């Protein structure tokens, strides 16, 4: 029992997901500034840490783990050394970030394909239920025109934007996008209740549109482009210009569609008495003016362009300038986790910054400000390593059935990263979307280090993983005239694999294989069924062996 609780990190991941999901809700509205689940998470994480050391479950030689692990340590040290601003909550955030790197992102040595699939089969339904319920409640708040403001925090309908039960609608939009991708994985792998995942996709897309999150629309366009590319264009060679045009076209179509849906959906809240803000969040006229001023090439237009860009981005350029002032307070070691807002208010001597401005709203700048120059360098190196890993695994699976699943894994992290360029990003435990992004990025790194594995569950009984050719005894014969027969020599479990040793006979020739499966349901005569199916996979290989023998 102890080995299962501490050795199988699935249970810790479920607890951590629930903990961060609670943090994602508008706790501040109710005056709650401490999540008591953090104590349970810390104790559980500490026990797993001790267990992993005893059982030698940590990887010390993986470059990506060293880079991000060192970054986490520097973040914690910076938080500890910032005596003027760091609080218990700051240290808690830094420790939780280390737990994400250590137990959510990093996979143990004992990880197997079966364990990965079991985790997905548990985590995806659990997460979809939590987020689906919260988003559905948020939609009801929208159409019933329920809203409120308390302790500097908002719930429900804020102006013409939907916050709902979340503390901020932008990271909630990124979370909704990730849940859409997770639902697609569940549908592709025939999880029970596929129609519920389809409904959940509709709920999340509705929530995203009603939040009017601009970054989310861009992310959806990128995802739609990727799915369209996989379905229709993967086999074709497209130039960079055509791919850019495809993406821009997707963005324009989604902007137009989003605007139409927003206008239609807002009719009901207006009947309830909601007032619509006069300024359009997409501010297309100002974007056109920025493009026009930029095309002139005149230097005197630069200040005007910057001011317009600041307005369009809701003050993010001003925030970036002030963020650099915060960084200058501790450029080498960084300011640590959870200290940004307090230092921003002191440095700018302004109390106008909202309660939800918790960091610099840019993932690269955040790594520089919180972990200093050395931490920034480590994160940049990790980011470059991630780009190459994503490229390598897509090339590795490009002709496999699992390509689409791998693509969805990558898009989960990409979604959060794009969001991190403009808003809440891949750091901290403010939003569940960041935790899920690290979870699936960890799966990507682990899969890339393994031999080809099937992530597609087409067969409910067993999933073929790999095979080994053990021995060959052959005679030169006419292969076309031979009817294959087989004998199952042995079948047994080894760790998580179900291994069958099968000998195939073709005339006087024989071929012996070890065949590895993930077995879900032990039924009568399943060995014979799997042995027959496997022969179709190696038939061409056997024919090639005969051809080579004739050449010799």
Automatic annotation (TrEMBL):
Topology of this chain in the membrane: Multi-pass membrane protein
UniProt-listed InterPro entries: O-antigen_ligase-rel_domated, WaaL-like
Chief place of localization: membrane
Annotated Pfam families: Wzy_C
Keywords carried by this UniProt record: Ligase, Membrane, Transmembrane, Transmembrane helix
Localization terms from the record: Membrane
Presence of the UniProt keyword Membrane in the record: yes
A single GO molecular function term of this UniProt record: ligase activity
Record domain O-antigen ligase-related: where: 205-380
Transmembrane annotation, as ranges: 12-31, 37-54, 66-83, 89-108, 120-143, 163-187, 244-268, 368-390, 402-422, 428-446
Keyword flag Glycoprotein: no
Protein name: O-antigen ligase family protein
Natural source organism: Massilimicrobiota timonensis
